[in-house]
Amino acid sequence: MSAVLTLDRVSRVHGEGASAVEALKSVTFTAAAGELVAVMGPSGSGKSTLLTLAGGLDSPTSGTVTVEGADLGSLGLKDRARMRRTAIGYVFQDFNLIPALTAAENVALPLELDGQRPRAARAAARLALDEVGIGHLADRFPDDMSGGQAQRVAIARAVVGERRLILADEPTGALDTETGEDILQLLRARCDAGAAGVLVTHEARHAAWADRVVFLRDGVVVDESGSAPVDALLDAGQGR
Amino acid sequence: MSVRQALLALLEQGPMYGYQLRSEFEQRTGGTWPLNVGQVYTTLTRLERDGLVAGAGADDEGHVVYRLTEDGHGEVATWFTTPVARTQPPRDELAIKLALAVTVPGVDVGRVIQQQRTATMKALQDYTRLKRSERGAERVDLAWGLVLDSLVFAAEAEIRWLDHCESRLRRAAREQSAAPASAPVQEEAR
Ligand SMILES: Nc1ncnc2c1ncn2[C@@H]1O[C@H](COP(=O)(O)OP(=O)(O)OP(=O)(O)O)[C@@H](O)[C@H]1O
Ligand SMILES: [Mg+2]
């Protein structure tokens, strides 16, 4: 498996002097093609910081972030922006939808910015909205939607097109248990089809869809759980 | 778990013999709580003695088939309309272990929590993998799917509780280290 995302000894300090916060402390992390990795940890442990660095939305204080072989730190502004539009899909913790655009326009935007014909972009957007179960809301504006519906628009925008790296910050926060599961099913399917995925979540039930679960505490990776043989399941089931 | 109630409920479908009851039970619960045939027959004997089931002859291969009596039907109806009692929580080894870990000297509680969380997360990943293959299957077995969900939610609750324990411990440790000067004063006050 080839690494789509690599963080090599990445640190990020917010602020300066006495008020400086070391949000990440020399974290090394990879996500390979076909792999879904979940990141868990208490509030303030550095999960969003890790994700914004991986998505090229922020730069590390030290260390390197590599996406598809390209060191984000040495890319020019233009190349980095292009990478963000085409290779990386990002679901923001607070959705980040554009209120003046409909659901379909929001989803089509990254494709259009990348030079796709508007009609093709809209068609792809509608397909992505169908996939998250809100195809019928394509022409609604974000403000006229429920929190869970807006969240699904944000997810559709992140998975539309051939994204190689999907980064999702609490993508199920506003969803009920069944819809949340549908979203995980979708992320899982994208990874099974060859994308690399990183999912930040507070919900263990959702993290369990990942191949690996990484636990962060105070900016440090404290623990990791990978795949276990099925025997472990029976032991766990009978122990209680 | 009450094997007795489960067997009675299964017989609502129609007369069955012991092996059949066992496989019907395991089909619904995915073998999560294995039943042995001996246990099934002993239970049937007791149910017959109590007048809740009656022998209904043998099938072509000579298996003794049981059916519900009038009282048996009544018992099933009562079971389904009575909530499962929550008054006596089952003994929970993990809760007991942590309660002891925080009081017995020399135990690295943080490590106990962390190891348990990793183990429970692994189990949760396994349940989820089973669910995924379940979803892919042509005919999703609703009963087994619900049992699996119950295991998933229980494991999730355990992880949430472990996270909660960890943050409480961290807070307690912070408070202790923040108040070393006032500690002796409290001692005097007592
Ligand atoms: N722009 C910033 N300026 C100063 N401090 C920041 C900034 N962004 C994040 N931090 C600090 O960095 C630490 C990690 O924040 P981060 O947002 O990564 O946490 P998180 O794990 O995503 O938490 P949550 O679960 O609440 O979303 C926190 O202590 C936070 O206060
Ligand atoms: Mg966050």
From TrEMBL, chain A:
Matches recorded under InterPro entries: AAA+_ATPase, ABC_transporter-like_ATP-bd, ABC_transporter-like_CS, ABC_transpr_LolD-like, MacB-like_ATP-bd, P-loop_NTPase
GO cellular component: membrane protein complex; plasma membrane
Source organism superkingdom: Bacteria
SUPFAM superfamilies membership: P-loop containing nucleoside triphosphate hydrolases
Keyword annotations: ATP-binding, Nucleotide-binding, Transport
Pfam family membership, one: ABC_tran
The keyword Nucleotide-binding is annotated on this UniProt entry: yes
Name of the protein in its database record: Putative ABC transport system ATP-binding protein
Automatic annotation (TrEMBL), chain B:
Keywords assigned: DNA-binding
Protein name in UniProt: DNA-binding transcriptional regulator, PadR family
Transcription regulator PadR C-terminal domain location: 91-169
Keyword DNA-binding in record: yes
Classification via InterPro entries: Tscrpt_reg_PadR_C, Tscrpt_reg_PadR_N, WH-like_DNA-bd_sf, WH_DNA-bd_sf
A Pfam cross-reference name: PadR
Transcription regulator PadR N-terminal domain span: 7-76
GO molecular function: DNA binding
UniProt entry tagged with the keyword RNA-binding: no
Family annotation (SUPFAM superfamilies): Winged helix' DNA-binding domain
